[in-house]
Amino acid sequence: AQSVTQLGSHVSVSEGALVLLRCNYSSSVPPYLFWYVQYPNQGLQLLLKYTSAATLVKGINGFEAEFKKSETSFHLTKPSAHMSDAAEYFCAVSVAGGTSYGKLTFGQGTILTVHP
Amino acid sequence: KAGVTQTPRYLIKTRGQQVTLSCSPISGHRSVSWYQQTPGQGLQFLFEYFSETQRNKGNFPGRFSGRQFSNSRSEMNVSTLELGDSALYLCASSLGTANQETQYFGPGTRLLVL
User: In this predicted model, what pLDDT tens digit does every residue of A31-90 receive, in sequence order?
Assistant: First the structure.
């Protein structure tokens, strides 16, 4: 079975500061990893995903994440936070195979607050 | 292309009642997954349908069921509602041919059970 741990349920940064949201996964087989963002009263929007190609993945809105197998991590970063980045962020994992059809396993989420 | 739509957006029910939620996937997508989101348990996978067949199921009681129609639209049903069923129910669609595909989420149906 796969699992995801997001370190820090709340992260607060100043506008213009570096954003770092941490995600560690557990999987006995090569994982597919995803970062989603959720704004209040909305569904989830994909920021980026890792599917075993390049380990450094670039996504929308200036976000990127690096897959580090040795650390079982997939941390999300953005060089300069913007007020509009305030939202809840979810890391998720899937794997190949029938037991994972349509199934994403999510972390508990990290609420990002951006201060002016 | 239109996104994933869910109806209704908000719903209030009382304990013991049943409820049906609807999800229309992106055109061309044959897979629909359902998730329950609560403050305590987070996002949990309910089940996935592909070409009218349930391919995968999470750890939820039998009160939670679903189906998919030939046009890929999906419904989920919760019978004998309990207070703990209050949640945001999200559906997501994808092509359904590989697990690394992006799942596109709808806005959700917020269910309140009184």
Answer: 999 999 999 988 999 999 999 888 999 999 999 999 999 999 999 999 999 999 999 999
- The DSSP bridge partners found for residue B94 are B31
CB-based contact B100 A49, cutoff 8 Å: yes
Distances in whole angstroms, Cα of residue A12 to Cα of each of A22, A47, A73, A91: 13, 19, 21, 18
Residues of chain B contacting residue A92, judged by C-beta atoms under 8 Å apart: 43
The residues that bridge with A90 in the sheet, in sequence order, are: A36
Q: CB of A48 within 8 A of CB of A59?
A: yes
Interface test with A, best of B38, B59, B100, B109 (most A CBs within 10 A): B100
Q: Which residues of A touch B (CB under 8 A)?
A: 32, 34, 36, 41-46, 49, 51-52, 90, 92, 94-109
Label residue B34 exposed, middle or buried (CB < 10 Å: 0-12, 13-18, 19+). Answer: buried
Which amino acid is located at A86 in the chain? A
CA of A35: which chain B residue's CA is closest? Answer: B102
User: Where does the pLDDT of residue A30 fall: very low under 50, low under 70, confident under 90, or very high at 90 and above?
Assistant: confident
* Residue in the block written with tokens 């059970």: B113
